[in-house]
Specification:
Length: 296
């Protein structure tokens, strides 16, 4: 993103490995960075690595709004950590952030709304606690794709971080957070065999569709993606093969196209080197996926 000219980047994650800290430092010299934290040791590391830089590093504390992943609850540890950041010469305390990823196990729109409400409430509670202790909180950053629509107008929230909404996918559809016409990413597979009347095999396996069926709810999706142009279900994936059980016995000749809405667009994006961006007139452009495979 920095290489593409984006000049204000918040890494909503904790960075602790020396090699990654060095990369963070290098990046901070080129662009305005902010990073997440929830641990005193990490703050010491950040302060150490940024000690000889011109500008201080912006830091946001992660709040656990119910996902039970990273993050602190509003309480004494939050105050201690914020004070530690404020006392760190090369760091700048900017605010708090959260991601209520438990929203992916919601069974209804009402539940999504309720979780979004909780997400906002715990953040406002955290801000108030910080303020009562004389610590200002400039940024309150929240969000996931399902909860974001309920948080845009929320008083106090300064930033939302949905990501998946760029494409949406089958999981979002099953959750009720998008409509079918909002799907913007598809995997176009090819039938390679029909070994049985109700079984066809496609050339898209786990390396093309990912094994994701929803991170928090088991069996949120029926199969490994939603087939748009055939009646059947992707029941099994091996690395290079997808097994489709057809609803009815019908002949599907090898070479036929199968159009699939992936279960989880974020994970699938990371599997490809390029997208074919389809224009309305049927022409397409190739977009390289520069940021894939960058977890190392
Ligand atoms: C910390 C954090 N922020 C934002 C997001 C974006 O949320 P979503 O994928 O629901 O759009 C994620 C997704 O995993 C996340 O982990």
């Amino acid at each position: 993103m920095a290489a593409a000219g984006i000049r204000n980047i918040f890494i909503a994650n904790q960075i602790t490995h020396p090699l990654k800290l060095k990369r963070l430092r290098d990046l901070h010299e080129k662009t305005k960075l902010a990073v997440g934290t929830d641990h005193p040791r990490q703050i010491r590391l950040l302060n150490e690595y940024f000690s000889d830089l011109q500008s201080a590093l912006d830091v946001l504390i992660e709040i656990d709004s119910g996902l039970q992943r990273c993050g602190l609850l509003p309480g004494p540890r939050l105050i201690d950590l914020a004070r530690q950041i404020k006392e760190s010469e090369y760091l700048n305390f900017k605010g708090i952030f959260t991601h209520a990823g438990q929203v992916y196990s919601a069974g209804s729109t009402e539940e999504i709304r309720r979780i979004a409400g909780q997400e906002a409430q715990i953040m406002l509670q955290s801000r108030q606690l910080l303020q009562e202790n004389g610590i200002g909180c400039e940024i309150i950053s929240v969000g996931s794709t399902p909860s974001a629509p309920y948080l845009v107008d929320q008083e106090g929230v300064t930033e939302i971080r949905p990501g998946n909404y760029v494409f949406y996918d089958n999981i979002q559809y099953k959750l009720g957070s998008c409509r079918t016409e909002q799907w913007a990413m598809f995997v176009l597979a090819t039938v390679i065999s029909q070994p049985a009347a109700q079984r066809i095999i496609i050339d898209a396996g786990s390396k093309a569709l990912n094994l994701d069926r929803g991170a928090h709810a088991t069996n949120l999706t029926e199969g490994y993606g939603r087939i748009l142009n055939l009646r059947g279900e992707i029941v099994r994936l091996s690395e290079e093969h997808g097994v489709i059980q057809l609803d009815n016995a019908e002949e599907i000749i090898p070479g036929s196209a199968v159009l699939i809405v992936p279960n989880h667009a974020c994970a699938v994006t990371n599997l490809y080197a390029k997208f074919y961006l389809l224009n309305q007139d049927g022409s397409f452009e190739i977009i390289p996926v520069d940021a894939r495979g960058m977890s190392q």
